[in-house]
Amino acid sequence: MKSSLKLHGGMPLPVRVIAPSRLVALRERTGLSKAELARRIGVSTRMVFFYEQGRHTPTPQRLQRMAAALHCDVGELTGVLRGEEGLVDLRFAAGLTLDQAVELLRRTPVGRDLCLSAPRLSALEQGRPVLGRNWRDRDVVGRLPAGLAKIYDVPVRMVVDAWMRSRPDESAPVRPRRQPQRRSSDSAEAAWQSLNERQRIYLGEILRDERMTETEMWMRRTHHLPVPRPAEWRKLPLALHAPAEVVGYTRLQERLRLNGVHDPGAGATVHALARRGLLVTSTDLVHHPETGEVSRVRVEMTRRGRATARAGLGEHAEQQPGVPLLSEWLWGVMVRVAGAGPNGLDRDALSGRAPFYLGVGYKNRSGGRPSRGFIDEVPVLATDGTHVVGYRWRLTPVGLRHVVEYLDEYRRRYPHVDTTSVVGLADIPS
């Protein structure tokens, strides 16, 4: 197979070969002729013929233009699944040759500190030892993923994951920064202090009701029941415009009644909180079996409202997980899969959107970034080996490495997640 790529330091440059049959299928699906595809990627029709015959492989720039013309990801042409990208895949997806990537990196402090060159970047991508000044300094090398992420236009976590796939025998290049729990902001505490006792009770009970609703949504996912979008379920029913003796009280009204603050002044209190930007109110129509169609008032907490309520309740402010860590929810999913051991977790045991963030071949939304590729669906064969009877989730090699590398940090950050099931995880075959 021919390519216009050069040699650097006597070593062939890494290329990503496209599958000829896949290219033909994607071109026909898009309705493009060979000539039109050639025009869009800037080559001759004869070169497209060579691509489809497997006699040539495109350069990174042409591969990127080809994917754009065919309305697909580069991975669909190369056969690299989402969540399985190595460092070379990220560079090809960015449409950069080694020389172009090095030129961009040499403009950065870390690129200069590492004396980055095409042979060194090629060795890094191919998992070979990289020799040179500062390449044994973990602090200096640990700055490189952020530099790569910037020129490839991807999140740093994608570079870290790709690095761990490309260099499986090395420790992770990035350690998350130790972040002390942040106190609530002064503005949130000031907003709480500005509320009267009644308003504080309302805001606190609305926060508790939202959390209860969030738990209910999680339980629905667990039992494979339909779950509305967060933008919908976060709008909490406050009141129905009908006699209470007929329609009863909403759950939020019952909570307020237990606190002795549900009375004709409820509307004024809610509007006062809304004027401060702590709540948003809305109305809709619902059907009630006793009265038919009835107007309903709903309240939704704003981000500022949650911060204010947490400050008043003495809770720490929410934190984003440090790079390259997962959120507490996704870490809990990883622990479940890891705790299932070599046999894996039944596919139906994972519901909701977790696979879109963690599963090989997934991405979290249309046009979004690929998943982390930490878990994969593994087929389970019948006892006679003749057919597949089901699928189970197992950790991928990089998923296993991620858990082992960052287990202590996760335990420190998310102490409520029970990790006793992952003791000795490094001994589990991947």
UniProtKB/TrEMBL annotation:
Residues 168-191 are annotated as: Disordered. SMART domains: HTH_XRE. Residues 23-77 form the HTH cro/C1-type domain. InterPro entries: Cro/C1-type_HTH (IPR001387), Lambda_DNA-bd_dom_sf (IPR010982). GO terms for molecular function: DNA binding. This is XRE family transcriptional regulator. It comes from Streptomyces kasugaensis.
